[in-house]
Write a structure and sequence with these properties.
Largest sheet: 5 strands, antiparallel
Order of helices and strands: HEEEEEEEEEEE
Number of helices: 1
Structural class: mainly beta
CATH architecture: Sandwich
Distance between the termini: 46 Å
Radius of gyration: 18 Å
Number of domains: 1
CATH class: Mainly Beta
Helix content: under 10%
Strand content: over 45%
């Protein structure tokens, strides 16, 4: 039985990985020179067809161990289909526990995190069509060092039981 244990563990991991929710949308962009400047505002564009569903936006951030802060302030610019007006919201994303331990997954001195973008307003896509979300770093330091990649992941929330 112990001879087959590694094979059973591998099979269990493959099964569990298949159960993880797949993103509705996901894209990641490299930050030039690992220094996120104010003028680098990655824009993510995706289509929404189900306006009745709830969606959860997540920041994907990859940074080094040397990132000097335990959080990141972002300006999230959201443009709905067919609208010229862009809604902007300032969001604080915590990257480390109070003890200083990074959240997310780490390998060597690189950390990757998928963190919920908790906004003041509820996040819903009320119109069908192409949506645009831009992320802008809003820290006091420019450029913000040790940030390697930034991205957006949108998950469709499971339906609520009624």
């Amino acid at each position: 039985m112990t001879r087959h244990l590694p094979s059973l563990l591998l099979l269990a991991l493959v099964f569990l990985a298949g159960c993880l929710p797949s993103p509705y949308y996901q894209n990641v962009e490299a930050v030039p020179h690992y220094a996120w400047s104010y003028d680098f505002k990655p824009t993510f564009t995706f289509d929404v067809t189900d306006t009745a569903a709830d969606y959860r936006p997540y920041l994907i951030i990859r940074h080094t161990q040397a990132y000097p802060f335990n959080n990141i302030w972002l300006l999230m610019h959201v443009k709905a289909p067919g609208e010229k007006l862009v809604r902007t919201e300032r969001v604080n994303v915590v990257l480390a526990e109070p003890s200083g331990k990074w959240m997310g997954r780490g390998m060597e001195d690189v950390w990757e995190q998928h963190l919920y973008l908790k906004t003041e307003d509820s996040f819903s896509f009320h119109k069908k069509g192409t949506w645009e979300i831009s992320l802008e770093q809003n820290m006091r330091v420019n450029p913000l060092p040790e940030v390697m990649n930034v991205g957006l992941r949108v998950e469709q929330a499971p339906p609520k039981n009624r």
